[in-house]
Amino acid sequence: MNDEFLTKFHKTPRAEFVDALYERISRRSQPHFARTLGQRLTLRNSVIMMALLFVVAACVYAVTDRGWRKVGGIWVQVERTYKVTLEPPISVSTEELEAQEMDCVTVEEAKEILRFDFHVPAWAPEGFRFEDKICGIDRTSDFAALYWAGADEYSSIQLMLQNLKWFNMASQEYKVGEPTIWGPVAPGSYEEVQVNGQPAVLIRGDWDYLRRGFAPSGEAPQEFVSRWDSKAGLQLHWEAGDVMYHLYAWKDVSPEDLIRMAESVR
Amino acid sequence: MSTRTDTLKGAHTLAEEIDWEAVYKEYLPRVYNFFCYRVSDEALAEDLTAAAFEKAWRGRGRFRSDLSAFSTWLFTIARNVATDHFRRKGPDVPLDAVRELADATSLEEIIQRDQDFDQLSSLLSQLPVRERELIAFKYGAGLNNREIARLTRLSESNVGTILNRTVEKLRMQMEVNHER
User: Fold this and answer.
1) In the predicted model, what is the mean pLDDT of residues A11-30?
2) CA distances (Å), A60 to each of A63, A166, A186, A207, in order?
3) Are residues A244 and A130 in the same domain?
4) How, if at all, do strands A143-149 and A129-138 pair?
5) Which residue from B minimizes the CA distance to A16?
6) Is B8's CB within 8 Å of A24's CB?
7) How many domains is chain A built from?
8) Nearest CA to A250 among A148, A122, A97?
9) Which residue has the higher pLDDT, B136 or A222?
């Protein structure tokens, strides 16, 4: 086949073009971020990355977790700080203290006074004993506080009882008619648990204003921005019928024991 | 070009055991000439060559040496680039060159005016797509009939027959133009 006339027209690509194209392809051969990431995705790096992601997610959650949250059907107000007013201490005379002591009642007497029926936990963690002497009772707001003494004054459990019907009518701050925890809690401090198959909220810690006590004696009340102390005890909140139960353990009580104690209310 | 070469060499180990520097040196002129024969425009041929090599580079991870020879793979990409180009632009027919060719008085004059390729390309532009593609593969890219057969899915003998007929037709037209 006489095809010489076709082969002799071969052209040599321009050197500038050859170099420029090579340059372009070379630049594209630089490791792509995803490829680099893929190569470095070893088990160790994956674990580190997961840990970092967890920390970042926790930070984001802590920053954004504010306002009203519904946890297992119970309303929870979430705040990073809590502004409280510290009052100066009130001097109480011995006579007045004795008078208050005399105001303490037994459980049976409290049931006669309060406008709702309630039950006392049949079980308490080891080392805690129930004092059948309810001093924290408020006939007006239908509130009572039961007390279990521990090894020392800081090791105790308190059960607060509240007639919800009364409470809801008196307070416009909470969601009337819906289960609501008193006061705010900090982001990440609460979780949903079950008490006898019913939703409850377990709270780890409390605001640190409780440690601050009072404003200096003789001075005006002071405003104080309280911060959350995640080690300041455990709280368990649940509601049954028209009664709100709120258990508070300062120390030496595990979440499991607190729930077990709550479940013994029958 | 040592730095650039190192980069390419470093990159090719990630995909396949191909010496991309050697590939570039060997195949760039062949791909470029394939496009010159295919589109009759050197600037456009550069663009299409660049497009073909960039596609090949991006898709180098998909090349499987057990399925096809490298040249078949690369020219399949080049062929697709050309097809895409014509799909967008439509066939290029340099009518001015045809008129110029018609006015030419002899083959020697054509050669002497150093416009041989332009004039040949004007004849190529009048060929059916398949014939022109075979000419580009054969005389531009320097592929043999077997490689062209693989690329075009024609039989090897069919490729040979078509090429013979096309070359003969072109040669006769060149001679006719020369006689004018």
Assistant:
1) 79
2) 5, 38, 14, 21
3) yes
4) antiparallel
5) B46
6) no
7) 2
8) A148
9) B136
Q: Tens digits of per-residue pLDDT, B104-116?
A: 444 455 444 456 6
Structural domain containing residue A37: 15-55
Let me know: does A17 contact B51? Beta carbons within 8 Å: no
In a domain, residue A6? The reply is no
Domain boundaries, chain B: 2-179
Q: Can you read off the two tokens belonging to residue B108?
A: 């020697």
Contact A6 B24 (CB under 8 A): no
To the nearest whole Å, the CA of A1 is away from the closest chain B CA by 7
Tell me what ipTM this predicted complex has. 0.72
Q: Across the A/B interface, how many CB contacts are shorter than 8 Å?
A: 74
Using an 8 Å CB-CB cutoff, list residues of chain B that contact chain A.
Answer: 1, 4, 7-8, 10-11, 14, 24, 28-29, 32-33, 36, 42, 46, 49-50, 53-54, 57-58, 116-117, 120, 135, 138-140, 163-164, 167-168, 170-171, 174
Distance CA A123, CA A121 (A): 5
Alpha-carbon gap, residue A84 to B29, rounded angstroms: 82
Residue in B10, B14, B116 nearest the CB of A9: B116
